[in-house]
């Protein structure tokens, strides 16, 4: 017969005795042990939090305050004392939003909006781009400015964009401000999506705060299905591929064969998808358990038939934010602007200088630079609506350049954004010459090759995104370019990494499963008794614990 003592003995045997030092570590910030969704500590803390949350479901401000306190604790466990930065930013933005809403003079309202945007971007710029700017200045002008010892708070880009969307929507009179600071802080600090999205729009989230909390059985089913799937994607697939293969190759690409570099590129493509979509799934699932619906963030992006389609499926909350608050703000497809012309011009000028400076070593950089400029120019010169297409393409290119810079301070991220911007421009002119007919069924072969080409272009771009710097990315590409057909060597490599390649295959098969199959799995899961669902969730956490490699790996997008 099972007794409390036998359970205690089993726990001590498997997990060790709990000491006061361990208990203290649960609540004190440790930069090496962030509070992640895929850890046992989060599961334990969330169960306690959720138990109390259930008793507060019929209250309003008490429930909001309770969630805010847990959210701030969650962020403290991720960034330490820098949770105060979140509070400071929220106080400033809330105050400015109130002023903008009450102000009747358009010029004054715009002034306060500009102040808010400058303050937010200055804060983001210091923590994320200060050293990048110093290095760039030193390289260009032979300067000797010392680098700053700057700590990058987790998810600062996400909550900055979210806060900016709130104040911009008030300026545009799309929403009214919250009734008080507590409601606003709840929106900004909501822990499921605080550190890595999805980026939530105020007009979508705020109305849910005022609605009666209503958690249906279907919501619980959806939440558990998303959390279980997210845990498997992140911990079983992404972590294992990363630690055991992808990280090693991208750290020293010249130490590995062309085939290994190629497979690492394919590996990173499924790794970043499983990592980020896995986090988003868990965030959406946890929010559902709290009675809130977050927007879908991924829609099987590698099934995209074009690069335009890809950005409708990948990181949807970011691409929507960039379209609504950046692309449209600089003119969209209507008019040009100074900023819209400035950033592409600076990029192509820099690209040309790079090509010229490397001319004595290799002519390839110059060919790449000239070809890129020529392709971009042809994308609007060949258009029947030349002026409008020029404006649209410049604004699109600016949006993608700044989107790349949002992801990280480095030339490789700028190039990643530029490649996507150039591809979007090329796709637009392609669609003008070969317009698709919405009422006509797409030919299977055409669709297959469209997906294949789009996927490989995205994988190529991921090389720049993953590499630690621009030079490393070029090393990976150059090594892959030397690939030769050596089946025996390939077989040896595959057998040596059979577990990694097996998980890569599993990830890709899962991703490319027909939607009807996924819906069928979801239907079966919905009909499973709640107790069995809880057991499955516990089993998945056990797998997470059993397969943990080198400790818990942080989510890739935490760095953004």
Automatic annotation (TrEMBL):
The keyword Cell inner membrane does not apply. It is a multi-pass membrane protein. It is found in: Cell membrane. Keywords: Acyltransferase, Cell membrane, Membrane, Transferase, Transmembrane, Transmembrane helix. The chain crosses the membrane at residues 35-53, 60-76, 111-130, 150-169, 181-200, 220-241, 338-357, 363-383, 390-407, 413-433, 445-465, 493-513, 534-558. InterPro entries: Ac/AlaTfrase_AlgI/DltB, AlgI, MB_O-acyltransferase, MBOAT_fam. The keyword Glycoprotein does not apply. Belongs to the membrane-bound acyltransferase family. PANTHER family: ACYLTRANSFERASE, TEICHOIC ACID D-ALANYLTRANSFERASE. This is MBOAT family protein.
């Amino acid at each position: 017969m099972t007794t409390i003592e036998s359970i205690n003995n089993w726990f001590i045997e498997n997990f060790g005795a709990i000491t006061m030092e361990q208990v203290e570590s649960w609540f004190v910030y440790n930069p090496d042990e962030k509070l992640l969704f895929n850890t046992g500590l989060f599961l334990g803390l969330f169960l306690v939090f959720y138990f109390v949350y259930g008793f507060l479901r019929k209250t309003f401000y008490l429930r909001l305050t309770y969630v805010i306190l847990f959210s701030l604790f969650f962020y403290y466990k991720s960034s330490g004392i820098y949770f105060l930065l979140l509070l400071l930013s929220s106080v400033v933005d809330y105050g400015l939003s109130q002023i903008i809403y009450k102000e009747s003079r358009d010029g004054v309202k715009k002034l306060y909006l500009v102040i808010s945007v400058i303050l937010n971007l200055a804060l983001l710029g210091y923590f994320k781009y200060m050293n990048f700017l110093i290095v760039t200045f030193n390289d260009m002008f032979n300067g000797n400015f010392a680098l700053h010892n700057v700590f990058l708070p987790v998810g600062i880009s996400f909550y900055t964009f979210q806060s900016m969307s709130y104040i911009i929507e008030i300026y545009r009179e799309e929403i009214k401000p919250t009734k008080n600071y507590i409601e606003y802080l709840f929106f900004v600090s909501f822990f499921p999506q605080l550190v890595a999205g999805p980026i939530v729009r105020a007009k979508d989230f705020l109305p849910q705060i005022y609605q009666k909390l209503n958690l249906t059985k279907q919501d619980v089913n959806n939440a558990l299905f998303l959390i279980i799937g997210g845990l498997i994607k992140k911990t079983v697939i992404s972590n294992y591929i990363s630690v055991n293969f992808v990280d090693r190759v991208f750290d020293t690409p010249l130490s590995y064969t062309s085939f290994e570099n190629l497979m690492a590129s394919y590996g990173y493509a499924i790794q970043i998808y499983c990592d980020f979509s896995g986090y988003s799934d868990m965030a959406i699932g946890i929010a559902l358990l709290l009675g809130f619906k977050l927007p879908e963030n991924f829609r099987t992006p590698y099934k995209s038939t074009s690069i335009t389609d890809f950005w409708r499926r990948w990181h949807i909350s970011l691409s929507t934010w960039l379209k609504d608050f950046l692309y449209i703000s600089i003119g969209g497809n209507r008019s040009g602007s100074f900023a819209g012309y400035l950033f592409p011009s600076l990029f192509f000028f820099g690209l040309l200088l790079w090509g010229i400076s490397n001319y004595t070593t290799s002519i390839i950089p110059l060919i790449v630079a000239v070809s890129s400029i020529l392709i971009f120019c042809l994308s609007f010169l060949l258009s029947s609506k030349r002026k409008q297409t020029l404006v649209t393409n410049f604004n699109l290119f600016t949006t993608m350049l700044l989107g790349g810079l949002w992801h990280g301070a480095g030339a490789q991220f700028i190039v990643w954004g530029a490649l996507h911007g150039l591809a979007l421009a090329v796709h637009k002119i392609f669609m003008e010459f070969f317009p698709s007919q919405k009422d006509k069924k797409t030919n299977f072969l055409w669709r297959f090759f469209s997906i294949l080409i789009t996927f490989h272009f995205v994988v190529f771009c991921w090389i720049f995104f993953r590499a630690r710097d621009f030079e490393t990315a070029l090393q990976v590409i150059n090594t892959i370019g030397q690939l030769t057909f050596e089946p025996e060597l390939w077989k040896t490599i595959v057998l040596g990494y059979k577990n990694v390649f097996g998980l890569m295959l599993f990830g890709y098969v899962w991703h490319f499963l027909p939607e009807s199959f996924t819906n069928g799995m979801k239907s079966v899961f919905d009909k499973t008794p709640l107790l069995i669902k809880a057991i499955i969730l516990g089993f998945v956490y056990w797998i997470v614990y059993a397969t943990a490699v080198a400790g818990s790996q942080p989510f890739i997008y935490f760095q953004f």
